[in-house]
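Exercise 7.
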Amino acid sequence: MDVAVYLFTGFLEAGKTTLIRETLQDEKFNSGEKTLILACEEGVEEYDPAELPGKVFYESIETLSRLNPDKLAALQKKYKAERIMIEYNGMWMNDDLYRAMPDNWYIYQEIMLADANTFVNYNANMRSLVVNKLQNCEMVVFNRFDENKIDRMELHKIVRGISRRVNIAYETNDHQIEYDEIEDPLPFDLEADVVDIANRDYAIWYRDMSEEMEKYQGKVLRMTGMVARDPALPSKSFVIGRHVMTCCMDDIAYRGLVCTGEGKCDLESKDWIVLTARLDIEFHKLYQSKGPVLKVISIEKVDPLPPDEQLATFY
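Solution. The predicted structure, written as tokens, is:
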């Protein structure tokens, strides 16, 4: 039997416990299913098992060593739980949980809770953890939000620098929910005959293309990038890309796409080029999967970009 997991992430005192309690009190959500709460940290608010609704059970997981498939499967079996609600430790990486989940568990919904008053500081000092919590969640809820004291745009920009897909909501001090309606136009014209990807926009383009690949089907793109030659590719194929930093120096990675063209390719790894190409989504034999491939229209070799422009970021 597949088991749905409702994942609540965020830092200490972000409001995860309160939201889980309120959710369980909602008859639209809780109609008597056996539900197991797994709490991975202790905050100011605590669960009182005696006050939990019927068929709702509680277990505490204090250390990462207890976060493993056998332990989690045993807890689910112990309570015959039909679904799981996880209050995740804000200092633990989400990947540790994903790896620890039993094979029949799946994330049904992932929500991040954040205190609007402290989120900017968390982002400044714990950027990698903020990115980790935002990159896969469906919604971030900023609670304790006061329009007169907190810059909505500042919060919005931080979130959009990590994900264009996540929904954003603000909970005011009087418990009213306001949804983010700030538009985020892309910094390039997708309707142009040739879509020019500026150096400063490569990271944004690559992420948007990865998230909404279909809208780039058949588009002619022009960009500056660094060549990578893969001996497993045919002689007329290569990879073009840039090193992208999402949150910090430790997560810098080369992000590129396979390019194919006619004739012999005389490019070498680390060559910098201006590429004009059409993007097609197709099955690629090398990677045994369907994905974007750039069909070369023209190539111009150029001098390497200055070092401070070679790294693509979201800022």
